[in-house]
Design a protein that fits this description.
With 406 residues, the chain is α+β, with helices and mostly antiparallel strands. The protein has 12 helices and 22 strands. Helix 6 packs antiparallel against helix 12.
């Protein structure tokens, strides 16, 4: 049932949908080189313009693929969490184009606000629609322009849209402030880790192979565990169900590795900031399951090695040079970096005395806990915003024009 005064119409009745530029076009008679936005630039509710690439395009096609201020940028797909995510283009880069995996939606300003539409598509209402009609594979989902055009847009009169945007923008500012603080703290940790671990390696530090202090885990799921984990570069080993809002694992889980709290897993897929994969420790669950594509391992009980110190070594990027040399020896398998179990456990690490490890780990751990608390706060803000979005953007709750809920 639609709230009084609200309307529901297909997206292409209230906006124009512009598809993007496919790279690699062969016929370019009058070439010009211009900046363009990729999926990596379009985040959930904001744009990351840190790295902008350029593309060569024929002059005759520039207008066709150019962005305009107020365009709502939406991603075609990717991981489930990337489906339909988007943000409003503010025109900060002149003559900017967009690639074919990013849709530019141009709202009719007399009907709907760009900010309101962006919030609606990013709400649980919007994401549920995109997920429902998307083409899906194991971990990926995508939508096409026809499905996007049919997206049922719920919207009130413009004054109420403005009031809703004003309320939700307060949460956006709180989230943004917390995210900036997290980034600053992470920079501090990286600097301190560099000082304590990378630059502190001296003669008294002992160099050993990783396999001397760690052993592989191959235990299978014989206990009926159902908590399937996934490795997130930002959040570590997390529940797949919570991360994707659905299970993307096989029905039969008996063949999965069973890992327990304090044990490690190496994900051999590259990601932003982690070109040679991520090594994460299970900290937030007593146990869980991982695909056999992961390399799982545990610290030997008798090893003179602090687990927190080892975790910081993994986070420092110290192993990248060795991993790079291993990767150069072969191609990818299953989309993963070509690093075998024997290669991985043959990597060398440097360890100071155990008391020194404990001191370094304690110093860095205090800062890591601060970051964890800030991330938890940011997640709470995001959950509060999602709850508000569900109520406000569907008309379940009304907002007075001055922005107060009632």
């Amino acid at each position: 049932m639609i709230s009084k005064g609200w309307k529901k119409e297909p997206l292409d009745h209230v906006a124009q949908i512009q598809t993007g530029l496919a790279k690699g076009q062969k016929t370019v008679h009058h070439p010009v080189q211009l900046p363009y936005l990729r999926v990596a630039n379009v985040q959930d509710g904001y744009l990351d313009l840190t790295h902008i690439k350029t593309v060569t395009v024929d002059q005759s096609k520039v207008t066709r693929y150019s962005l305009q201020k107020g365009d709502v940028l939406l991603t075609e797909g990717g991981d489930f969490d990337k489906l339909g995510r988007g943000a409003v283009w503010n025109g900060s880069i002149e003559h900017c184009l967009h690639q074919n995996h990013v849709f530019a939606v141009r709202p009719n300003p007399e009907i709907i606000l760009s900010e309101f539409l962006s919030m609606l598509t990013g709400s649980s209402y919007g994401k549920a629609y995109f997920l429902r009609c998307s083409k899906q594979s194991t971990n990926l989902a995508s939508i096409n322009s026809s499905q996007l055009k049919e997206f049922p847009v719920l919207y009130p009169p413009l004054p109420e849209q403005k009031a809703i945007v004003a309320v939700l923008s307060m949460w956006d500012r709180a989230i943004e402030k917390t995210v900036r603080l997290i980034a600053a703290k992470e920079d501090q940790v990286s600097w301190l880790r560099n000082m304590l671990i990378i630059q502190s390696e001296q003669g008294e530090w002992k160099t050993i192979k990783l396999g001397e202090v760690c052993s592989p885990i191959t235990r299978k799921n014989s206990v009926g565990e159902t908590n399937v984990l996934t490795s997130s570069a930002q959040h570590g080993l997390v529940s797949q169900l919570n991360y994707y809002n659905k299970s993307v694992s096989a029905e039969n889980l008996e063949g999965y590795y069973l890992i327990q709290r304090g044990e490690f897993a190496y994900n051999r897929s590259s990601s932003i900031g982690y070109p040679f994969g991520t090594i994460k420790r299970l900290d937030d669950h007593e146990q869980g399951l991982l695909s056999t594509l992961y390399l799982c391992f545990a610290l030997e009980p008798s090893a003179k090695c602090n687990s927190n110190f080892l975790l910081n070594v993994f986070e420092s990027g110290l192993l990248n040079r060795q991993l790079r040399s291993i990767c150069q020896e072969g191609a990818r398998s299953h989309g993963l970096l070509n690093i075998t179990k024997s290669d991985f456990f043959g990597i060398t690490i440097s360890l100071p005395s155990l008391p020194e490890q404990n001191r370094i780990a304690e110093t860095l751990n205090g800062m890591r806990m601060e970051i964890k608390l800030l991330k938890s706060l940011a997640d709470k803000y995001k959950q509060q915003k999602l709850g508000l979005m569900q109520k406000l953007l569907t008309g379940a709750w009304k907002v007075q024009l001055e922005g107060a809920c009632r």
